[in-house]
């Protein structure tokens, strides 16, 4: 096992990794930008090293500075958290070539899964159902027109190097396809330096269901069941739950098995997620792989009893997974609310600032993953997640009531947060019934105000 690990991240996930290391008896080195100097979570680490100015490009995204900190602190491994460098194949490769274990997948797997067209080819080969569309990048305009006609409109044009909703464009009828393709290629080139795009049939009002997988370096792959992350706004998730509501066990079992086949075919190691769209008839279609630990991993931890961060560390150290698929049984139901320093009444405008009061809920089945404290100032330079409120209970109804209770206990003053929105969500009949899809927030919860009307 490693003696010392460096955490190449900040905020709640840095603290989450620090906590796992402490429980494993591993020394942990934090890094911080000038904007995070003095942040209270850094005191939990055995050592903290400043790696640069506030801008991410000068600190948490700066590979030479992170490698230098790892050298200075003499660590054996680097945990990238999520975001920042977590899915950067060059960073993973540089870590390994500098003799630091990268606590994540092999760089080859990150690179391959980073191209959605490649991931879909692997899925096809592993007999994992995909959304009907182009097998690989679209070629000529003529090829695209022929294909779109055969799958039927509307079609979605997606950037091969995109993901998470970036670089998507819907095309509703043939006359606009060629112009849409060109626009999508230009956008993809500008955003990802890769103009490659692919086509998919547009799935109407899909649910977003993802499967957590764990793989060791000895060929064992297991899934840790599913999460529903449909509740999102503009590709920012608001609430996640596990297991996916209203999905029959048979479908969930097939999803898990499909995810394991895909991970094996991809040569995947460490923790990862296979994302699927589920249509109104409960048919599922693979769309992409997330080659990292995700923000919403706690809901899976709550229903399986696993510590996914510890498993990541053990697998990276070469240990075998100490359980098999039949050992991964789920118990009860879990929800997570992402509490962001944003103002939901003002188009989710970021609301950084100083926390003047904080009351954290407790009691049975409540977990609060957060780095904030009274007196702490949320810097404006990074994403606005200030905490994750997670509950676990024997069934979905009990978990709903528990989350309502915990949301009512939670007090955060000094900044605007998404807390009031979560209180509404957990009292909405559609959400209570598990009847939401990826369009629900914008369609039902917060329909756009009509121009010319006042509040
Ligand atoms: C789709 C889709 C409908 N049909 N693909 C957006 C994020 C990226 N991971 C895939 N996304 C979508 N792909 C087809 N063929 C609808 C979405 C989508 C979505 C997916 C997951 C979670 C939220 C979403 C919100 C809007 C659209």
Helix/sheet category: alpha+beta
What percentage of residues falls in helices of 4 or more residues?
A: 25-40%
Q: What Rg, in angstroms, do the CA atoms define?
A: 22 Å
**Roughly what fraction of the amino acids lie in strands?**
25-35%
| Biggest beta sheet attributes | 5 strands, parallel
Q: Oligomerization state of this entry? A: single chain
Q: Could you name the ranges where pLDDT drops below 50 across 5 or more consecutive residues?
A: none
CATH architectural label of the largest domain: 2-Layer Sandwich
Give the strand tally: 24
Q: State mean pLDDT (0 to 100 scale).
A: 96
Biggest β-sheet: strands ordered side by side in the sheet: 3-2-1-4-5
Cα distance spanning the termini: 59 Å
CATH superfamily of the largest domain: ATP-grasp fold, B domain
Shape: globular
What are the SSEs and their pairings?
Blueprint: E1 4-7, H1 11-24, E2 27-33, E3 47-52, H2 63-73, E4 77-79, H3 89-97, E5 101-102, H4 107-114, H5 116-125, H6 141-151, E6 155-163, E7 166-171, H7 177-192, E8 197-201, E9 207-215, E10 221-228, E11 232-233, E12 236-237, E13 239-242, H8 249-265, E14 270-278, E15 284-290, H9 297-304, H10 308-316, E16 333-340, E17 342-343, E18 349-350, E19 353-354, E20 357-359, E21 366-369, E22 377-378, E23 385-393, H11 396-409, E24 411-413, H12 419-425, H13 429-432, H14 440-445
Helix pairs in contact: 3-4
The protein binds ligand MV4.
